[in-house]
């Protein structure tokens, strides 16, 4: 029985074996890569909840991020990339109807992005 991690790794290997070379050879295909290391290597992928860019969780070395498993759970934390964290931190929060500052970095449920999810984004084009 394949685990979710095993399925993700299998999909990533399939992508690297069959699709990556094609994408590199054809300019019309936009292959995703890590916004921090610019690689499409296998790993634990997370998707920024603000800008939608993809990153390897291990490439983000900021303190206090916790563990990948905290983001991979259905009700887990939402990943915010370093660029968006800085941009949103500089903005002055504005109150909205529910009393929560708009643009605040409050954790909310994460759309499940994790092992294999970044791969599916690469291969579903």
TrEMBL record:
The keyword Phosphoprotein is assigned to this record: no
InterPro entries attached to this UniProt entry: ARID4, Znf_FYVE_PHD, Znf_RING/FYVE/PHD
Record-linked Gene3D superfamilies: Zinc/RING finger domain, C3HC4 (zinc finger)
Signal peptide positions (record): none
Alphabetized GO MF terms: zinc ion binding
Tagged with keyword Zinc-finger: yes
Record's keyword terms, sorted: Metal-binding, Zinc, Zinc-finger
PANTHER family: AT-RICH INTERACTIVE DOMAIN-CONTAINING PROTEIN 4 (PTHR46694)
The name this protein goes by in its record: Uncharacterized protein
Species of provenance: Castanea mollissima (Chinese chestnut)
Lineage of producing organism: Eukaryota, Viridiplantae, Streptophyta, Embryophyta, Tracheophyta
